[in-house]
């Protein structure tokens, strides 16, 4: 107990110092490189031209990247990837087609992933988001300010009725985001073989869309859990009249026994240091004969496990494991009964996200401001391109207790 307290205090102190000092170090690097702009500018333009991306400050020439601040070149070489994304948010550059831009950038980085690792900023991020256990108890997933925005904001990038903000399912003919979300919910219910009277734990319930859908359509009793207080309130409002109880708490503090458990795009927030504890916990919550469904992300080996920009500006702590990092701790406590790759569905989902962002730009900027919209826009363009290159993958995985030797059919 004493050692744990000392460790938590140490990590908290290091995170505070790191978050305070790193911005200073990055500004120092920028100031050092600024005098070299006349050299960096043509060099940067040439490098981008090698992947058919044209940089120019003349918007009338319709470049792929329109430079609005000449400091772009120095800052790009100071911090590379994180600087590139932050400069878009801050209005230092713009583009007419963000999706097309990332469709050129990501395949190049996919072929040469070592390039990202040449940046000092990359290793600063690795230490902050990968080495330090910021997902430890009491500090699990510090929600960014965007998560506390009014529900009207999120309705502009969800299906509105079920308030689902996760990958949908298009295999059976869904053509819209809303149709794909309903198809996904039905698929999850089929995989879990839900029956009236069962109990369901929805870990990371978000706005409560899955919880309400399963309670209303399958007669199950649902407990939805989220660590985000504002989301818990919105979820409770959304589930009024349904057999759903919403709780705002850390997953470690959940108690009870459940027939079924869903973990929809929440594992990414747990952090790799805590996987063993997480799988041990959900195994303890599962009744004999029960099932767990995870909808979760993987990266291919060699691909960075996190994107610092996502962590800082969009989702809070996010870590994408590779298959080995997931399977090893998971199989200590549970059995993998079956899996399904739904990456193609996720790719289409992100295309719909981008469409909703572009269609609702004025409304979203009116609610949250242009910087929040731009952060969201570049996040989904980047993630969508990672899905297209299959550097980022999305799976459905069914888990059962290790003493459960029964067959679990793969519903599709």
From TrEMBL:
SUPFAM superfamilies: S-adenosyl-L-methionine-dependent methyltransferases (SSF53335). InterPro entries: CFA/CMAS (IPR050723), CMAS (IPR003333), SAM-dependent_MTases_sf (IPR029063). GO terms for molecular function: methyltransferase activity. Keywords: Lipid metabolism, Methyltransferase, S-adenosyl-L-methionine, Transferase. The keyword Ligase does not apply. One of its GO terms (biological process) is methylation. Belongs to the CFA/CMAS family. This is Cyclopropane-fatty-acyl-phospholipid synthase.
């Amino acid at each position: 107990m004493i050692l744990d307290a000392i460790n938590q205090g140490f990590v908290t102190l290091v995170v505070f110092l790191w978050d305070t000092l790193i911005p200073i170090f990055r500004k120092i690097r920028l100031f050092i490189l600024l005098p070299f702009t006349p050299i960096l500018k043509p060099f940067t333009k040439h490098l981008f031209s090698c992947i058919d991306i044209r940089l120019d400050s003349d918007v009338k020439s319709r470049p792929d990247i329109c430079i609005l601040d000449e400091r772009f070149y120095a800052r790009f070489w100071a911090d590379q990837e994180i600087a590139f994304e932050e400069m878009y948010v801050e209005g230092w550059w713009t583009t007419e087609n963000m999706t097309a831009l990332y469709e050129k950038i990501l395949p190049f980085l996919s072929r040469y992933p070592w390039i990202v690792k040449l940046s000092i900023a990359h290793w600063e991020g690795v230490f902050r988001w990968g080495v330090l256990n910021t997902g430890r108890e009491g500090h699990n997933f510090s929600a960014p300010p965007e998560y506390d925005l009014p529900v009207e904001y999120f309705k502009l990038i969800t299906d509105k009725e079920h308030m689902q903000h996760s990958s949908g399912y298009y295999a059976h003919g869904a053509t819209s985001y809303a149709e794909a979300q309903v198809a996904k919910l039905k698929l999850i219910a089929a995989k879990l073989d839900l029956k009236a009277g069962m109990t369901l734990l929805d870990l990371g319930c978000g706005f409560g869309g899955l919880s309400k859908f399963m309670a209303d359509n399958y007669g199950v009793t649902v407990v939805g859990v989220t660590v985000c207080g504002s989301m818990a309130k919105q979820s409770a409002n959304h589930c009024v009249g349904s057999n759903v109880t919403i709780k705002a708490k850390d997953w470690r503090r959940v108690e009870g026994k459940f027939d079924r458990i869903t973990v929809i795009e929440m594992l990414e927030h747990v952090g790799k240091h805590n996987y063993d504890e997480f799988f041990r916990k959900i195994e303890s919550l599962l009744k004999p004969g029960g099932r767990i469904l995870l909808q979760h992300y993987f990266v291919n080996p060699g691909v960075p496990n996190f994107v610092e920009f996502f962590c800082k500006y969009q989702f809070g702590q996010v870590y994408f494991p590779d298959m080995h990092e997931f399977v090893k701790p998971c199989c200590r406590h549970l059995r993998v009964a079956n899996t399904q790759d739904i990456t193609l569905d996720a790719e289409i989902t992100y295309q719909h996200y981008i469409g909703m962002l572009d269609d609702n730009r004025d409304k979203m900027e009116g609610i949250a401001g242009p910087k929040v919209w731009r952060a969201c826009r570049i996040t989904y363009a980047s993630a969508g391109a990672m899905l297209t290159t299959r550097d980022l993958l999305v799976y459905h995985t069914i888990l059962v207790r290790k003493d459960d030797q029964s067959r679990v059919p793969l519903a599709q």
